[in-house]
Design goal:
The two termini are 39 Å apart. The chain has 359 residues and is an alpha+beta fold. The chain has eight helices and 22 strands. Helix content is 23%, strand content 35%.
């Protein structure tokens, strides 16, 4: 298994902004790197450039020491010679072929012997836990089974890299939840380097060793799932990954070991991070990190009076929407909350959970 390294990659389809605008990233060997972002951000185009299904205009793509594409050196290895497996959103199984034939067809094209093909088909079906469906036709398989067969087919010839383009998009919510963990389990057992494209942040959090957030053909932020969620750098990332309250801040100045500034509802203190003060536009705080109390908590800073406007039962949690000095703040609290709409409470923001973000 090998890493994929992309350097200054550009892909244009027409005059105007590039679909992929000079991105550089490393998909580490044996890890899952997920390209995450809204439709049109360039993530699928990047994946197709790696696969050799699109030809970039500029930049370089390496798989280990092998150059797959280089605009400067005029190298462009054909897709069939890249030893890369790909799982498409619609699975692309041949409907007239059985499971056995779907998996074995690509191996036969690569010149594998019949006995070797038979053995490999059995190994792959054991890996995806569908050995009893070897003679089934795709139309007789569930969505989850089709997805696993498509994955098995992509892994059958031992590719150096596995590419997954919205692999769970066509499954219902319950099955999609199950298959996230199934995909991750199979990747860990094979050790294949994987690059996944999705717009589903929950899927990215489960599958990934590294998340690359993309916007308008560029990389907005990259890092481990926990880093991306707990320490977003920009307002876009804070909004796109999970739910976040964004508090406007002005008049920032030093305060003890941190900073303080003016929010719409009063003075607020927060940590002094690595971001330059003049770049700070807002403070991000997750709904689960806001503390609710009936009286002002003397032990917590940043406590402000609020009025509960709406309570929404969500099963495991209750979503509270409260007005704090004219700003709506969303809070996730336990089901045992004893409060009603219209009640007056206090909301506290612990400084360590306030994250400065750029506009």
């Amino acid at each position: 298994m090998k890493p994929i390294e992309i350097t200054s990659l550009v892909k244009r389809y027409a005059p105007g902004p590039a679909a992929v605008d000079g991105i550089s990233l490393l998909a580490e060997q044996g890890a899952v790197t997920t390209l995450l972002g809204p439709s049109g951000c360039g993530k699928t185009t990047t994946l197709r450039c790696i696969a050799g299904l699109e030809t970039p205009d500029e930049g370089e793509i390496r798989m280990g020491e092998q150059v797959l594409f280089s605009s400067r050196s005029r190298v462009n290895v054909p897709s069939e010679d890249r030893n890369i497996g790909m799982v498409f959103q619609n699975y692309a199984l041949w409907p007239h072929m059985s499971v056995r034939e779907n998996i074995g067809f690509g191996l036969a094209l690569r010149g594998w012997s019949r006995s070797r093909i038979i053995e490999r088909i059995r190994q792959v079906l054991d890996l995806v836990r569908l050995g009893d469906r070897i003679d089934a036709m795709p139309g007789h398989l569930s969505g989850g089974q089709q997805q696993r067969i498509a994955l098995g087919r992509a892994l059958a010839y031992n590719p150096e890299v596995l590419l997954l383009d919205e692999p769970l998009a066509n499954l219902d919510a319950r099955l999609r939840e199950e298959m996230r963990f199934e995909l991750r389990n199979i990747q860990e057992r094979t050790g294949v380097t994987a690059i996944c494209v999705t717009h589903d942040q929950s899927e990215a959090m489960v599958l990934s060793d590294k998340i690359v957030v993309m916007r308008d053909g560029r990389i907005e932020q990259e890092g481990a799932p926990r880093e991306i969620y707990e320490r977003p750098r920009t307002e876009f990332t804070a909004r796109f990954i999970g739910l976040s309250n964004l508090i406007g801040i002005s008049g920032i100045e030093p305060s003890g070991n941190g900073l303080r500034g003016r929010a719409a509802f009063g003075e607020i203190v927060f940590p002094d991070g690595t971001m330059e003060t003049q770049k700070i536009a807002k403070l991000s705080v997750r709904p689960e990190d806001v503390v609710v109390s009936a009286t002002r908590p003397d032990s917590l800073p940043n406590a402000f009076p609020a009025e509960i406007k709406t309570l929404v039962y969500q099963g495991e949690t209750v979503a509270m929407f409260a007005d704090v000095g004219g700003q709506e703040i969303r809070v996730h609290v336990g089901r045992g909350l004893e409060a009603a709409e219209g009640d007056r409470v206090f909301l506290a923001f612990h400084p360590s959970r306030l994250v400065p973000v750029e506009a």
